[in-house]
Amino acid sequence: MLKKVTKRRPRRIACRVAIIASRYNRRYVDAMVRAAERTLKHAGAEVEVVRVPGAFEIPVVATRVAAAGQHDALICLGVILRGATTHAQHIGDAVTNALVWLQVRYQKPVIHEVLLLENAQQAEQRCLDKDHNRGVEAAQTALEMAAVMRRLGGKGG
């Protein structure tokens, strides 16, 4: 059973968040971007959205954004639908590995919502359904992690 996104009342936090989002499977990704932006802005965050062609291009742009040091957190949004080959799995694994490396390398929260899904029905539920939209969850996590990193101080805070 799919977990419903708990919409917490966001604590106001002055922070900058970059959303790096794929244009591929645009209908689904756009819905996550809108939900994330709405949640972040409601909490007082400044938001910058950067679009890339597909999920595979997200890590290189996220790395450039993190290296610039202008944002408190990054949110990476994309939808990969499985097909008849293992291509989707390879893309998903590569993106995940790169994003893990990125957040450790730059000590910057990188919220991973590049979804690897079986079919369009799963994408509709996780992206278009307001009760399950992963963009909201990503934004809430980014806000919380920005606050944690700020509290910890140091290079990444």
Written account of the structure:
With 157 residues, the chain is α/β, with parallel strands linked by helices. It has a single domain (16-116, 127-150), classed as Rossmann fold (3-Layer(aba) Sandwich), CATH 3.40.50.960. Helix content is 48%, strand content 20%. The protein contains 5 helices and 4 strands, in the order βαβαβαβαα. A 4-stranded parallel beta sheet has the order 2-1-3-4, with helices on both faces. The longest helix has 20 residues, at 87-106. The termini are far apart.
Structural class: alpha/beta
Distance between the termini: 36 Å
What is the fold named in CATH at topology level?
Answer: Rossmann fold
Question: Proportion of β residues?
Answer: 15-25%
CATH superfamily: Lumazine/riboflavin synthase
Q: How many strands appear in the DSSP assignment?
A: 4
Strand order of the largest sheet: 2-1-3-4
CATH class: Alpha Beta
Low-confidence sequence ranges:
none
Give the radius of gyration: 15 Å
Q: Mind summarizing the main beta sheet?
A: 4 strands, parallel
Number of domains: 1
Assembly type: single chain
Would you identify the CATH architecture? 3-Layer(aba) Sandwich
Number of helices: 5
What are the secondary-structure elements, in order, as H or E? EHEHEHEHH
Mean pLDDT metric: 92
Tertiary shape:
globular
Helical content, roughly?
40-55%
